[in-house]
Amino acid sequence: MKIKLHTLILKLIIGLIPILGFSQCPTTAITLSSQAEVNAFPTNYPGCTEMDYQLTISGDDITDLTPLSIISYVPKLRIANNPLLIQLDGLNNLQSSVPNSTGLYLSNNPSLNNLSVFTGLTFLNELFISNCSSLTNLEGLNFVTGFEVLDFGGLGISNNALLTDISALINISSFDNSSSYFSMGISNNPVLSSLNGLQGFSSDYEYLNINNNDSLTNLIGLSDDFGVYENCNINDNDLLQSFDGIVNFWAHELNINNNPVLDDLSALNNYSGYPPALVITGNSSLSICNNATFCGSISEIFECCEGNHPNFLIENNASGCNSIPEIAFSCDVEPINDECDDAIELAIGETLESYNELATPSMQTPSCNDNNRLDVWFKVNSESYTSLDVITEADYSLQLWEGDCTSLVQVSNACAEGSLNDIPVTTNTDYYIQVWSDSETGRATGLFDVLVQDATLTTEDFTIVDFVLYPNPVGNILNLKSKKKMNSVKVYNLLGQQILSSTPDELTEEINMTELNSGMYLISIVVDDRSVVHRVIKK
Hints:
The radius of gyration is 34 Å and the shape is elongated. Helices cover about 10% and strands about 35% of the residues. It is mainly beta. The chain has four domains: about 25-190, 24 nucleotide stem-loop, u2 snrnp hairpin iv. U2 a', Chain A; about 200-335; about 340-455, Sandwich (Jelly Rolls), CATH 2.60.120; about 465-539, Immunoglobulin-like (Sandwich).
């Protein structure tokens, strides 16, 4: 009798567990990897409403989440790799608030087309949505009002082929990552045209990546005030035209690369701080970089690093933003190499862009054309060469010096306009090059190229008479005329690379230079086995 009574009491207690509120939730993170496991959740975990560990839903045959409707809270919810899952009905009862916020991860759910069940989520600590190729918007997350990162967290929206709108996040007004690391990435969303919805994320990030969003035209929607401790990358956004949307912003490393229609960085006027790395490359339309922020950064580069900061790379953009000297020139920054002691080192065979705007006359007086000099200085080691050419552009003068800046000696017959040719030098010796133009007679002041090369690359035979070449500088067509037939015509860049050639066997020849970039070129003409090399500037 006693045994029967004990059995009855035990059965009664077990039956009352759900009624009394006792639950049997998982004691560790779990994964439901099939529809059968989803269906069995209420049986395996009776009365489980508030979970303490991560729940992952990931299975090839999962289509229905309604058996999970008993769950009201989960700290981390990961729904990933469910090819047949179209909707999330069954998660409608999920709720979150401070301090019980939720981390939400949705990835590789190609059929999922809406998030409408998440009306009870008001606080998140992480949100990642990727490779959900049927998702067009984030409606359902518009009830989220706060974002509190507890340790490591972030916002990631990437590789969503049809996502056009993230404005459902607009109601997030409380954002706290003061004691944590937070990163944001908006990448590879080909039809996303606006960042509207991100205004509430206003704090300091570890990383910010806005990359490969083919329809994004501006950055309006970002917070008015944020900073990036590590990398800020704005790359490969095919229609990004401006940085409009960035108001107050700083970053330790800023990369702006391969945004083909971006033409203006003036929106970065309130960018603050001096980053240890600044990379601006491959923005083929970018021509306006002389905003107050960059001008200040360029000035600091010149002061700290002689104009050659190892972590600063500015190239392959449009004219005006194509190099540090170009930006410095447009910013009216005094050239760093204004005096001999600050000469910029050249490598033989490499063309360097420079400028002499705002330069002042140096105490060293050249042996030719000493008039109102705006001079700047370069240094080169002759290495194993015994003769050198020093080439710059028309209307600039050159003087080659030997020694050191405290006791310079002019190299004999090495003072001329435009170029110095076949100058004998001593091997493994340092030489200084003074380049200047006249500041009062309307001669050139601005950007110019300078090149030191092995003199054997060009030989000029001035015995060819009655030869003319015009116009120089040239816009599109360069005309050549000779009293004798020209055997060959070749066009080289300043690196010695042949880029055009012809064998006219005529007294006249036209060279179409329309497609060539602006700069200096060498035109080699052979007549009767004798050659002449002319330097031509392409406007």
